[in-house]
């Protein structure tokens, strides 16, 4: 078992690596500006104070589901706190020092939802949405606690929100990113294919958990599956209900394989996703397709990228 000193050293090393990655991202922005290319994929047009106020005025919160992410959760919380005070953290039955790290992070005012045992990401998201609605929020940005998502990209979602109020905004990653696991690229292409078949909607990335949800729209969706496939289910059901789905280019950080923490079970979870796709494709014939025809007059701009 690690001592508190060893744990603090490890956490400091993780924060330093994430900080170095962010600094590299900022340098990339400077290069983009110098070359005249668009920097909109890595920085929003809103300042931090503007983002904080806009999220307050429009009742937008950030939901962070977490399960045994003790080495990264504190850094993620601190960086999210720089963007907003509206934070809900869902402890999905953590058995490590995650909650201790949250307490020691110094980040105050975090609304923590906690339960045991571990029930999966789908259940964690559902509990986060319920808490957000109870707290009076209308929208929720979901971000992972493993450090792969950049909280500094939250302004991108706010920019897109101001242009597409009521839409479901989904992060679109660069799938050629350094250290991107090859299985992720395959799984995303696989998921994109089935999603388009089930909804008629083409998206560049259907698997990222970095999203902005309109809570009123998704609150009408029935009980979700309990694990990772719930995010696909939310996407498909929203498309069937005529909710605009807008991709937002975001950055992603994949640590070296030796440092990676993932609770995705390649065989079991891929099987669950495959079975869900079979069920959704069948349902699409009798429910999804009629709903799409009914909503056709809306003509949503799904292929548009912010």
Would you spell out the secondary-structure blueprint of this structure?
Layout (H helix, E strand, L loop, with lengths): L3 H32 L12 H10 L2 E7 L6 H9 L5 E6 L5 H7 L6 E5 L5 H14 L4 E4 L11 H10 L4 E5 L9 H18 L11 E4 H4 L11 H11 L4 E5 L16 H29 L12
Helix pairs in contact: 7-9, 7-10, 9-10
What structural keywords apply?
Spore Coat Polysaccharide Biosynthesis Protein SpsA, Chain A; alpha/beta; 10 helices; seven-stranded mixed beta sheet
Give a brief description.
The chain is an alpha/beta fold and 306 residues long.
How would you describe this protein?
- The chain has 306 residues and is of the alpha/beta class.
- The protein has helices spanning 4-35, 48-57, 73-81, 98-104, 121-134, 154-163, 182-199, 215-218, 230-240, 266-294; strands at residues 60-66, 87-92, 111-115, 139-142, 168-172, 211-214, 245-249.
- It has 10 helices and 7 strands.
- α7 packs parallel to α10 (266-294) and α9 packs parallel to α10 (266-294).
- The protein starts with a helix and ends in a 12-residue tail after the last helix.
Q: Using only CA atoms, what is the Rg?
A: 19 Å
The shape, in one word, is: globular
Task: Tell how many strands the DSSP assignment holds.
Answer: 7
Query: For this structure, what is the CATH class?
Result: Alpha Beta
């Amino acid at each position: 078992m690690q001592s508190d000193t060893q744990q603090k050293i490890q956490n400091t090393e993780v924060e330093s690596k994430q900080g170095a990655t962010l600094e590299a991202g900022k340098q990339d922005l400077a290069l983009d500006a110098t070359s005249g290319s668009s920097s909109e994929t890595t920085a929003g047009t809103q300042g931090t104070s503007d983002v904080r106020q806009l999220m307050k005025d429009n009742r937008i919160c950030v939901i962070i589901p977490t399960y045994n992410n003790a080495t990264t959760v504190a850094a993620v919380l601190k960086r999210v706190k720089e963007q907003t005070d509206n934070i809900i953290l869902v402890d999905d039955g953590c058995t490590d020092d995650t909650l201790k790290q949250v307490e020691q992070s110094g980040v105050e005012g975090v609304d923590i939802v906690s339960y045991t045992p571990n029930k999966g990401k789908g259940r964690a998201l559902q509990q986060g949405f319920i808490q957000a609605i109870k707290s009076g929020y209308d929208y929720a940005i979901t971000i992972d606690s493993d450090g792969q998502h950049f909280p500094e990209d939250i302004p991108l979602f706010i920019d897109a929100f101001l242009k597409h109020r009521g839409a479901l905004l989904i992060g679109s990653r660069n799938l050629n990113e350094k250290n991107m696991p090859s299985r992720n690229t395959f799984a995303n292409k696989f998921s994109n294919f089935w999603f388009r078949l089930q909804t008629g909607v083409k998206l560049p990335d259907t698997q990222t958990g970095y999203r902005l949800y309109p809570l009123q729209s998704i609150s009408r969706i029935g009980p979700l599956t309990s694990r990772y496939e719930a995010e696909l289910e939310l996407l498909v059901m929203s498309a069937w209900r005529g909710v605009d789905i807008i991709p937002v280019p975001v950055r992603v950080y994949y640590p070296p394989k030796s440092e990676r923490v993932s609770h995705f079970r390649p065989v079991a979870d891929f099987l669950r996703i495959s079975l869900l796709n079979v069920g959704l494709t069948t349902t699409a014939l009798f429910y999804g397709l009629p709903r799409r025809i009914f909503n056709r007059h809306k003509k949503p701009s799904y292929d548009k990228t912010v």
